[in-house]
């Protein structure tokens, strides 16, 4: 019984950090002093999200309950929390408040759609269909830390792009095959504690280090969109070429 509950503990930890990130963002004040720590908590939640599935597979403790709990937690930690962080630090003072509300709402909505599709549609082996919500949420919450350097219009556009990538059909490589040996599971609490300690001691440095590989991963999807567009253009061109002889025969 305890063994089956261990993966869910990581998932609940993920949810807990997401809620704390929302509270920190809400109480960040005019200087957004807590926003950086809120973003870091989202990133640590991403670490927990990556560990719960691996621990479940290592312990052979996978269950439908754990799957549903994971999805519900992800909506909060990587959908609502990052969108709220971005709204508080970058969108709240915009003149067009309605636009800010809509864009803020679109992100968690697309995240929920992405998770619902993941639960009911079989993905390709070795790939995710659409940008995973933990990656999208971590990018968005970290991107919010650059609100003083990046114009609000660019941040709005970035939020919409990340939202679209989540519900797109672009293939993203997954790393689920990189598992945890059963004998090394006892190390996972140490890894989590170390990550939290680094997050508290070096919040700015850690967030920027994590931001770079996550953005590269997201840009992989934009490259996939370009390939899909080329494929669609070629298909339409072939169909057009096939239709032209038929028209000529009809006129003849």
UniProtKB/TrEMBL annotation:
<feature type="transmembrane region" description="Helical">
    <location>
        <begin position="98"/>
        <end position="116"/>
    </location>
</feature>
<dbReference type="GO" id="GO:0003882">
    <property type="term" value="F:CDP-diacylglycerol-serine O-phosphatidyltransferase activity"/>
</dbReference>
<dbReference type="GO" id="GO:0016020">
    <property type="term" value="C:membrane"/>
</dbReference>
<keyword id="KW-0812">Transmembrane</keyword>
<keyword id="KW-0808">Transferase</keyword>
<feature type="transmembrane region" description="Helical">
    <location>
        <begin position="72"/>
        <end position="92"/>
    </location>
</feature>
<keyword id="KW-0472">Membrane</keyword>
<comment type="similarity">
    <text>Belongs to the CDP-alcohol phosphatidyltransferase class-I family.</text>
</comment>
<dbReference type="InterPro" id="IPR043130">
    <property type="entry name" value="CDP-OH_PTrfase_TM_dom"/>
</dbReference>
<dbReference type="Pfam" id="PF01066">
    <property type="entry name" value="CDP-OH_P_transf"/>
</dbReference>
<dbReference type="InterPro" id="IPR050324">
    <property type="entry name" value="CDP-alcohol_PTase-I"/>
</dbReference>
<feature type="transmembrane region" description="Helical">
    <location>
        <begin position="184"/>
        <end position="203"/>
    </location>
</feature>
<feature type="transmembrane region" description="Helical">
    <location>
        <begin position="128"/>
        <end position="147"/>
    </location>
</feature>
<feature type="transmembrane region" description="Helical">
    <location>
        <begin position="35"/>
        <end position="51"/>
    </location>
</feature>
<dbReference type="GO" id="GO:0008654">
    <property type="term" value="P:phospholipid biosynthetic process"/>
</dbReference>
<dbReference type="GO" id="GO:0012505">
    <property type="term" value="C:endomembrane system"/>
</dbReference>
<keyword id="KW-0594">Phospholipid biosynthesis</keyword>
<protein>
    <recommendedName>
        <fullName>CDP-diacylglycerol--serine O-phosphatidyltransferase</fullName>
        <ecNumber>2.7.8.8</ecNumber>
    </recommendedName>
</protein>
<feature type="transmembrane region" description="Helical">
    <location>
        <begin position="153"/>
        <end position="172"/>
    </location>
</feature>
<feature type="transmembrane region" description="Helical">
    <location>
        <begin position="209"/>
        <end position="225"/>
    </location>
</feature>
<keyword id="KW-1133">Transmembrane helix</keyword>
<dbReference type="InterPro" id="IPR004533">
    <property type="entry name" value="CDP-diaglyc--ser_O-PTrfase"/>
</dbReference>
<feature type="transmembrane region" description="Helical">
    <location>
        <begin position="12"/>
        <end position="29"/>
    </location>
</feature>
<keyword id="KW-0443">Lipid metabolism</keyword>
<dbReference type="InterPro" id="IPR048254">
    <property type="entry name" value="CDP_ALCOHOL_P_TRANSF_CS"/>
</dbReference>
<keyword id="KW-0444">Lipid biosynthesis</keyword>
<keyword id="KW-1208">Phospholipid metabolism</keyword>
<dbReference type="InterPro" id="IPR000462">
    <property type="entry name" value="CDP-OH_P_trans"/>
</dbReference>
């Amino acid at each position: 019984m305890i063994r089956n509950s261990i993966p869910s503990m990581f998932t609940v930890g993920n949810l807990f950090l997401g809620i704390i990130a929302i509270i920190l963002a809400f109480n960040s004040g005019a200087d957004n002093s807590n926003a950086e720590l809120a973003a870091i908590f989202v990133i640590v939640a991403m670490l927990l999200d990556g560990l719960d599935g691996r621990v479940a597979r290592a312990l052979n403790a996978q269950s439908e309950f754990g799957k549903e709990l994971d999805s519900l937690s992800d909506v909060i930690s990587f959908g609502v929390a990052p969108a709220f962080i971005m709204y508080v630090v970058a969108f709240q003072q915009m003149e067009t408040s309605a636009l800010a509300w809509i864009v803020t709402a679109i992100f968690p909505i697309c995240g929920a759609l992405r998770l619902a599709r993941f639960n009911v549609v079989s993905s390709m082996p070795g790939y995710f269909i659409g940008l995973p919500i933990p990656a999208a949420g971590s990018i968005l919450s970290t991107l919010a830390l650059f609100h003083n350097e990046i114009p609000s219009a660019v941040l709005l556009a970035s939020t919409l792009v990340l939202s679209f990538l989540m519900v797109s059909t672009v293939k993203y490589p997954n790393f689920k095959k990189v598992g945890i040996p059963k004998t090394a599971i006892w190390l996972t609490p140490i890894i989590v504690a170390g990550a939290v300690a680094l997050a508290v001691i070096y919040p700015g440095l850690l967030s920027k280090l994590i931001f770079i590989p996550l953005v590269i991963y997201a840009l992989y999807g934009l490259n996939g969109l370009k390939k899909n567009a080329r494929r669609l253009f070629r298909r339409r061109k072939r169909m057009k070429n096939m239709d032209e002889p038929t028209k000529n025969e009809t006129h003849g």
